[in-house]
Design goal:
By secondary structure, the chain is an alpha/beta fold. The chain contains 9 helices and 8 strands. The structure holds D-xylitol-5-phosphate and zinc ion.
């Protein structure tokens, strides 16, 4: 599978976001990962649907909205109408509300014609989201606890990637996108890809780099 790189604008300078999006287009990145934080599911607050709406006309790259929010269903409309290509929601946030909330939210996202995905934190077994795999276009394995960029990759996630890929294959979804979010670097990217992930989020790795295009290329091929 070809690897796709999803730079996270969480690590970007919000005052020059338009310029940054244009640079990302030229860097060889495939998605733009938009980290949405509500100050409750995670401590910080970042931005809402307005950010996606404003950057949408500037790029053809896939806009990947990662909703770290307590009540994801209430936000779907805003992100779908803003032009997100894929919206992912947290198992943990949904499970707190009800047993069926995750599936309902994924179906709601799809009803807008937008791709959907489920996210698990590092301490949640990937098996917990097996029941919704058939509904998902992408599954996201957090390799740090959500909330902040620049954290260290949690190595236990390698096994989870293998488990997720094997399960996707077993249900006839060998091509499913498996995204890894948190602590991806030029040093660990090869091992993450070898384990079976094909979408790598990279915040600090891309934004701290003096040559974004070279970094994106090394994350794909090193
Ligand atoms: C963490 C976010 C990540 C983060 C990744 O809550 O979901 O997307 O920005 O940043 P790095 O690559 O610096 O770990
Ligand atoms: Zn993220």
């Amino acid at each position: 599978m070809t690897t796709k790189i999803a730079p996270s604008i969480l690590s970007a300078d919000f005052s020059v976001m338009g310029e940054t999006v244009k640079k990302l287009e030229k860097s060889g990145a495939d998605l733009i990962h938009c980290d949405v934080m509500d100050g409750s599911f995670v401590e910080p607050i970042t931005f809402g649907g307005q950010m996606v709406k404003n950057i949408r006309p500037l790029t053809k790259l896939t806009l990947d909205a990662h909703l770290m929010v307590e009540h994801p269903k209430t936000q779907i409309k805003f992100f779908a109408e803003a032009g997100a290509d894929i919206i992912t929601v947290h198992y943990k946030a949904c499970r707190k509300i009800s047993e069926t909330y995750l599936e309902e939210t994924l179906r709601l996202i799809k009803s807008y014609g937008v791709k959907c995905g489920a996210v698990v934190n590092p301490d949640v077994p990937v098996e917990n989201i097996f029941p919704v795999f058939p509904l998902c276009d992408m599954v996201v394995l957090m390799s740090v606890f959500p909330g902040y960029g620049g954290q260290k990759f949690i190595p236990e996630v390698f096994e989870k990637i293998k488990t997720a890929r094997a399960y996707a294959v077993s249900i006839g979804r060998a091509d499913m996108d498996i995204e890894i979010d948190g602590g991806v670097t030029e040093e660990n990217a090869a091992e993450i890809r070898a384990a079976g992930a094909n979408v790598l989020v990279a915040g600090s790795a891309v934004f701290k780099s003096s040559d974004m295009a070279a970094t994106v290329s090394r994350l794909k091929n090193n």
